[in-house]
Amino acid sequence: MDGTGIYSGYISLKSITVEEGNTSFFTDDNGVLYNSEKTTLFLYPAAKLTEEYIIPDGVGTIAPHAFNGAKVKKITMSDSVRTIGKRAFYECAVLEEMTLSENLTRIGEYAFFKCVELGEIKIYDKITAVNEYTFGRCYKLRKVELPETINTIYSSAFRDCSKLNDINIPESVLHINGNAFCGCSELAEITLPKSLKTIGSGAFQ
After folding, report:
1. Nearest CA to 93 among 133, 139, 132?
2. CA 149, CA 40: separation in Å to the nearest integer?
């Protein structure tokens, strides 16, 4: 596996099984695909209906597209997870609650794009940037807690989060890029820190 992740494209996929003797991959009791060392989660079956999934201790990487379109309402991430790949939770349309690892160092672009039921999120202090469209079109996202380590909020990071009304901009933030909060129609007030150096075009349009 080259680290780019797996996207099956099969929205009816409910489980994955790895035959005994395969030394490259492993599936857990839920039919979720990992590498054999169980350090990378490659694919959660999109059609598996689950109230909650706990990403186990020892997993360090959520591969790109891993939960793309998954039908799970609550995800709890162990603190061993350090990286969330691009589009990892893209269009998880029923995801209401997400607990992130306290040791995350990177959340990829579009990671939570169109998680339309997600209500709030807390990001911990090893993250230094909110990438492009990370939470774009999370229409019910109301509250975001950002750590004092964030230096850049990239383009369209929170675009069209139309219910967002509670977010702190930490004193560490230097740059808010174009369209970062575009379409956040319920964001009635915001305090910009003295550290801020640039605001991109349409950032609060």
Report:
1. 139
2. 26
